[in-house]
Amino acid sequence: MVRPRYAADAAGIVLGALLDVVFGDPRRWHPVAGFGRFALMVERRTYADDRVAGARFAAVAVGVPVAAAALAGRLTRRRPLARTALVAAATWAALGGTSLAREGRVMADRLESGDLSGARAQLPNLCGRDPSALDPPELARATVESVAENTSDAVVGPLFWGAVAGLPGIVGYRAVNTLDAMVGHRSARYARFGTVSARLDDLANLAPSRLTGALTVAAAPVVSGDPAQALRVWLRDGSRHPSPNSGQCEAAAAGALGVRLGGRNVYGSRVEERPHLGDGGPPAPLDVRRAAALSVTVGAAAVGLAAAARWWRGRR
User: Fold this and answer.
1) Which family does it belong to (predicted)?
2) How far, in Å, CA of 71 to CA of 49, rounded?
3) Are 99 and 22 within 8 A, CB to CB?
4) Global pTM?
5) Domain tally for the chain?
6) Helices (H), the chain
7) Residue 165 falls within a domain, yes or no?
8) 237: domain range?
9) What are the distances in angstroms from CA 171 to CA 201, 281, 312?
């Protein structure tokens, strides 16, 4: 017999994923945007150019929503329908897989039609690179890398933590990931203040990124890829990336798609030279479309695993 609250969590995860498939990200009143406004308010009251202030900021900005989620979970322990609805809403708000795949397909459409200016205008929807001087192969590479990385951040990550900790796990992961996007990047203002937020995000994604890599290897046949090649490239190149997590996803995707990723990336005035991942040639527009399909497949597998894990944990 499965305890009702765990069954409700499993059902909520599946229902929330279905809501993401049908509706994608909410276009108005997105809860993550509301959290962003809350985090900005906390930042205004805690900011100082040092890591201690950044730690206080992260503790409040993550701790408050996690505490609220834990309280809501406690109040719905004996109300399975309410709990299912709550977990479904949080899962829908935390997931971004449908929107991610859609943006990838739009890029593929524009590259296939030769619409270079449209493709450059599309790239900011996927990543923060400067698209102004990028040619079609570089736009395709940027898209494949972004889709691979964000399959972990926007799909597998919240599902993994939902499986581990239920509603507080989903909310806490999304809070940490959002803080990293807000203050974890390199800049004069956040060089020290954002350090704790960035490291929290690294820790929160250690397991999800590697699960994403494993699921990408398993899903390679869906995009006519070779799982053995994907596994070989993942194990060989996954740790070459400067990020402890992004490289796991990108290397596995490079192996599954049979392409080569990495190279010179321009972010405004900052230039980074990334190591090459994979053995193939540069991604083509068709590979962008394949990357979107791979992301959808990995996401579907992650939903099933998360729901099954939550259900199994609730067995008496």
Assistant:
1) Belongs to the CobD/CbiB family.
2) 33
3) no
4) 0.95
5) 1
6) 4-23, 31-46, 51-75, 80-94, 97-112, 116-122, 136-151, 157-183, 195-219, 227-237, 246-257, 285-313
7) yes
8) 4-310
9) 13, 39, 21
